[in-house]
Amino acid sequence: MCIRDSIGGDTGEVDGNPPPRPNKGFGILISNNAMNTLVQNSTLGINLSGGVKVSNVNKTYQEDEERQITATIDSNHIGYHWHLYDGWTRLAGTAGNGIHLDKSTDVFITDNYIYAHEVGIYIGGEGSEHNQIDGGLVRKSSKQGLLIENSKSDEISLAVYEAGSHGIQLSQTDSICFLPTLSRENQGAGFYLNKANWTVLQSLKLPNGGKQILESSRNNSYGLHINDSHDLIISLCEFTFNNDHGILVDGGSDKVEISAPYVSDNSGIGIYLLGSNNIQIHPEKNDSLYVNSNTNSGIVVENAKNVKIGKLNQASNNISGNGQQGILIKGEQTDDVDIVAVNYIGNNDAEGVRVDNGKNICIGGQAKDEGNSIENNTIGVLAQGTNTQLSILNNNIGCLLYTSDAADELDGVDLGGRRI
Fold first, then answer.
1. Taking a C-beta distance cutoff of 8 angstroms, is the pair 176, 209 a contact?
2. Average pLDDT for 213-242
3. Of 264, 402, 280, which Cα lies nearest the Cα of 341?
4. CA 367, 373, 375: angle at the middle one, nearest 5?
5. At residue 304, does pLDDT exceed 80?
6. Confidence band for 67, pLDDT divided at 50, 70 and 90
7. Strand pairing class (85-86; 191-197)
8. How far apart, in whole angstroms, are the C-alpha atoms of residue 420 and residue 409?
9. Which of 95-109, 214-228, 405-419 has the lowest mean pLDDT?
């Protein structure tokens, strides 16, 4: 079945705006395994339950059987550039979801413009999987721009602007992959990942050397918030000018790799690891790591375990120009933190590296090329706290090293609170 039409359209004007003629339910409802439906080049006004709903359209596959698209929603305009009126009263955002997938598989959504719904695009329900969003723009949702719940193996590339809550939210999902995606100017976080396991956020390199970027910027909260999630890869992404931390990883999150990020000009901390474990932050072979010009510290590790910052034989690291420390490590539960081969920790307004408690912390390493360059900070390395266990090995430190009287041994040498 193919639909190309105007649904919930308009004639005439009310106070210079077209009056609504909404349907009370969805503009289009596709259900009960109505396979191979195409909705294309249609205009859907503000229908009260939402724009397009796909419900219980799914297929079971045998092992190694090739998957097939069950429905396509392509190049539609869902919602107006103006607000919904009831008489003379504004009711903006009272319509349901722009596109709503419920218990459906293999739906292909591409190049739609979705404006002023509760949730721009919703994907969820038991058995929901292998859906794809390839391009399109969601604006001014009263709640999330994109919400995915209880789904798996979906692939997303999308632009979300000006949502009333998080731009993009995942909850209880598995194996969701985000390719170049923009999430900007939302009232919540750009990305909020809650119990979102095996998630990938990744920019793409082009053959000509350019990139298609995954970016989260100018949001009223975090650029990226990872809560109680495991096995995530964040690669070549940008988190800038957010009104709180650039990246927050908390809630016991585990096995998170953040490679070659660009995290700058956020109003909080650049990257904040709180109560999380097995975290890697590093550049890639040909792509640098930048954590610059954040209002607070560049990177904070608090009550986290097995954290690795930097990596040998990769492109450069640059942690500089932050309003507090370049790297702050704290919390009595912090254990096993390595800072290795960071080319430049410098020009931060406080210490280059500050350690307030924590066990098995190493700045540098046994090999000469595992050292860090720590320069042009107020103090190069500050170590304090009665439970601090810290080694500083093979670094180039252009500023003062200070250890408080309470600090434990530094690489087998008790510095006794002296400046050296």
1. no
2. 97
3. 280
4. 155
5. yes
6. confident
7. unpaired
8. 15
9. 405-419
Looking at residue 63, its pLDDT comes to 78
CB of 115 within 8 A of CB of 89?
A: no
Please provide the average confidence, as pLDDT, over all residues in the chain.
87
Higher model confidence: residue 313 or residue 414?
313
Contact indicator for 105, 80 with CB cutoff of 8 Å? no
Q: Which residues contact 382 (CB under 8 A, 6 or more apart)?
A: 351, 353, 354, 355, 402, 403
Question: Which residues lie across from 183 on neighbouring strands?
Answer: 160, 216
Dist. CA 51–CA 71, nearest whole Å:
15
Which residue, among 165, 154, 158, has the nearest Cα to 190 in the 3D structure? 165
- Cα separation of 21 and 85, whole Å? 10
pLDDT of 48 reads 84
Buried b (16+ CB within 10 A) or exposed e, 130-169: bbbbeebbbbbbbbbbbbbbbbbbbebbbbbbbbbbbbbb
Read off the amino acid at residue 317.
Answer: N
> pTM, whole model, 2 decimals?
0.89
CB 25 within 8 A of CB 51: no
Q: Please state the φ and ψ torsions of residue 119, each to the nearest 5 degrees.
A: -115, 130
CA-based Rg of the chain, rounded to a whole angstrom?
Answer: 25
Rounded Cα distance between 301 and 248, Å, is 10
Closest CA to 348 of 288, 297, 399: 297
Place of tokens 């920019």: 203
The whole-number pLDDT of residue 94 equals 54
Helix boundaries (H) for 201-300: none
Q: Which pLDDT band holds residue 259 (cuts at 50, 70, 90)? A: very high
pLDDT band at 64 (very low <50, low <70, confident <90, very high): confident
* Residue where the block lists tokens 């298609």: 212
Q: Which two tokens stand for residue 97?
A: 């979801």
Q: How many residues does the chain have?
A: 420
User: Which structure tokens are listed for 416?
Assistant: 């006794």
61 DSSP assignment: -
Cα-to-chain-centroid distance, residue 5: 36
Q: What is the mean pLDDT of residues 359-375?
A: 91
Q: What is the pLDDT of residue 406?
A: 42
